[in-house]
Structures are given as structure tokens and as C-alpha cells.
Amino acid sequence: MEQDIEQKGYAHPEALVSTDWVAEHLSDTENIRIVESDEDVLLYDIGHIQNSVKIDWVEDLNDPLVRDYLDPEHFARLMGEKGIGPETTVVFYGDKNNWWATYALWVFQLFGHENVVVMDGGRVKWEQEGREMTQEVPSFPSKDYPVPTRDDAQIRAFKEDVEKHLEKHGPMVDVRSPGEYSGELLHMPDYPQEGALRGGHIPGAANVPWARAVKEDGSFKSADELKEIYEGEAGLNQGDDVIAYCRIGERSSHTWFVLKYLLGYDKVRNYDGSWTEWGNAVRAPIER
Amino acid sequence: MSRQQQIAVLLQHYQDPRYQGILEDADVVMPGGSPECGGSVVIYLIGEEGRIGGLSFTGQGDIISQAATSMILEQVLDEGLSMDEVIALDYEAFVDRVGREAVGSRTRNATLGLSTLKSAVRKYQRDTLYANSSEPARKAG
């Protein structure tokens, strides 16, 4: 039987909203902006939740030149264009168990937009419940969004942070597939530029593939089930300073969300350089 | 074609893919992409006296990667392209054919099927070359 979010024992249940909640708030476009963020870039075009806008991780959130996220000026402009003000509650949802929705949420957090939630179950749950979708792209009056300060230090780890973390044997979670973790899979065939010269994982990192945190309907597992995985199996403890990583930092943003909001870990950082940086770095230590 | 028309064509291929399935007697089975990120496909190729005798694919992933794989297989088989002509196919021209406005920044997804097909053809050509060149050696031995 489906559990309500409040019954799942999360440290911060307020970080999630249900599909029912979203359905009831579709018209509150003054205070709430629903944002679809997908891996499959055409899904929004073929149908989306009424009054939702699309934010694409490549075209909207990444810097087009430098390997980094957009700068504060561009973030403020993007928010203004989407009709999002500093006080707007942003509800993220997307495909692949909210993989890209949590990634977008993580980027929003870099800019201090704290008023963010995820629709539990994401796009697949909304579809499976037979809820209405539309191809109509909404248009909202643009809002004045003051240029924010971007603070990477709290939730983002750079390579030098990981090196320091490694020296003190800090806990890390590699959220890639077992084949990537073991070094069996280096990169996608024919796309070596997106891969790494060396395979394996950062020494000491536990392997918890990111999607283990969700159930078949796309919604998050209960806190007890998550604790069994991340604490029982991977050996993390409440109060740990944890770094999560994957290939380019997107799958690990999902695990970052789980640890920070659902299990209440205060110090969790996402190493977005991830394996494409570590596996190519000269003399970076690797374990297989 | 407008972006919406391009999306409609992609969606049509995604929902009704051409040449999808496993060729049991394939000479080459070539995987490409990643099921974890974007999409993945497997190309099945049968060679017939150096020409393409059969092609199919299986795969999973986003609309662009799966639909574009269906489109490239349809193009190759309908136009009867030779293996060398497949190798010579231009990635940029193929993205134009798929629809650049719909593909946007996801050109890698759009060319996944074509690049995997080229890998399959190259493997077939290498294997055939090796078999032909090693045959006299075996006879001499």
C-alpha cells in the first residue's frame, strides 16, 4: 500500500510533495512554479503537467564554454524568464526517478534558492496515475530576480576537497553502476571524450547505485529502507561528512538529495567533477 | 520542417521503430551507448558478400537516440547503401536529417545509432579481412 510522505519517516518531509498536492496547486501560479527537468529532452514537448515550465540541464543550467554551472547573472535572468521570484516555491519533477529534477534542485541550491521541493514519484508516477498532461506551453509574466550570490562550498566538492577528504578517510559514495565502479566499463563506446582513461573508483568509496533509493513507481523508499541501504550496507552514519559522486555529477545529486533531505545528513557534498575528472587526473589514486 | 514536425517524425519512429529486433544469425552484434546515461543500442549486422544483407537494432533510452537509430537503419536499407557508403555517412548531415531544431544540444544522442552502425560495419570488415588473409596461411600450414 502506498505510504503518505509524512508516514515515510523522513528527516525533512517538507522537501517532497505528492502528486495529489501538485494536482491541487496547478493554478497557484503566483506562488508556485512547477519545473520539469528530464534526461529525455523531448518529453516536455510531447506532454507535461499543466502550467509547468521546462528547465534543461544542458541548455539552461550549464555554462556553454567552461565546465561549470551558469553564473549568478544568468541564473537571475533564467528565473525572471520562467516567472520565478526569490519567494516562489519551485516544484521539480522529471523522468528517470527524478534524477534530473534533483540535479536541477541541487543547482538551484548553489544560488541559495531554498524554496524548492520535489514531486515524489516524478513524471512516471503522474503518468501512471492517469493524470492530465498538456502540450500547451504556459507563459508567465517575467519576475525581477535579484542577482544572487553563488555559494559552492556547502554542497559542492571540488577535486581538492575530495583529496583532503581522502586523507582523513572521509566517507564517500560512488553511485554509478557496479560495472563502472569496478572499472569494467570505462566510457560509452565511441565517446571516449566523455569517459576516463582509467577505470575503477576513488579508494574507500562505497558503491550504492543511485536508483536503489527509489521504488518501482518512482517514489522514494521509506527512511527505514534507505537507512538499511546507506547505513546498514554502505556504512554511513548520521553526522558523517559525505561526498557523493558519479560520472559527471548528475546521478550523485539524486543521492545527495536522499542523504540531505530524506535521511537528514547535514554535511553532504556532490563532487560534480566525478569520474570524468578523477579517472583522467594524473596520479589520482584509484581502487578496483 | 518546423521543430514540431521534426518532433512528430521522431515520435513516430520512437513509437513504431523500423527494423527493431534481434537477428539471430547476425555476423556482428555491436553494442553502443550506455543504458545509464542517455540511451543504448545494439546493432545486428549480416554481411552478404561484402554488402549489407540485413540490419536490425534493439535499444532503450530517450526518444532522440532510439528514433534516430530507427531512421538511420531505414535510410541504409531503403537506399541500399554499401558498407563503404555507410562508413562515409556524415554525422552533421545526419543530424540535419533527424532535425537539428528538435535535437538541439543532444547531437550525441542523435548519432548514437549511426556511430554504432559504423562500428559494426568496421568490425565486419576487419573480421572478413582477417578471415581472408588468414585462410592461405592455414592452408600453407
Which properties best describe this structure?
A: alpha/beta; Oxidized Rhodanese, domain 1; four-stranded parallel beta sheet; 9 strands; globular; B: Sufe protein. Chain: A; three-stranded antiparallel beta sheet; disordered C terminus
Structure description:
The complex is a heterodimer of chains A (288) and B (141). Chain A has 11 helices and 9 strands. Chain A is α/β, with parallel strands linked by helices and 288 residues long. In chain A, the strands form 2 sheets. In chain A, strands 1-5-4-2-3 form a 5-stranded parallel β-sheet. In chain A, strands 7-6-8-9 form a 4-stranded parallel β-sheet, sandwiched between helices. Chain A starts with 15 loop residues before the first strand and ends in a 10-residue tail after the last helix. About 2% of the residues of chain A have low confidence. Chain B is of the alpha+beta class. The radius of gyration of chain B is 16 Å and the shape is globular. Chain B has a single domain, classed as Alpha-Beta Complex (Sufe protein. Chain: A), CATH 3.90.1010.10. The C terminus of chain B is likely disordered. Classes of the chains: A alpha/beta (288), B alpha+beta (141). Chains A and B meet through α2 of A and α1, β1 and α6 of B.
- How many DSSP H or I helices of chain A? 11
CATH topology of the largest domain in chain A: Oxidized Rhodanese, domain 1
Instruction: Please report which band the strand proportion of chain B falls in: under 5%, 5-15%, 15-25%, 25-35%, 35-45% or over 45%.
Output: 15-25%
Structural class assignment of chain A: alpha/beta
Summarize the structure.
Chain B: One of its GO terms (biological process) is iron-sulfur cluster assembly. Chain B: Residues 9-127 form the NIF system FeS cluster assembly NifU N-terminal domain. The complex is a heterodimer of chains A (288) and B (141). Chain A is an alpha/beta fold and 288 residues long.
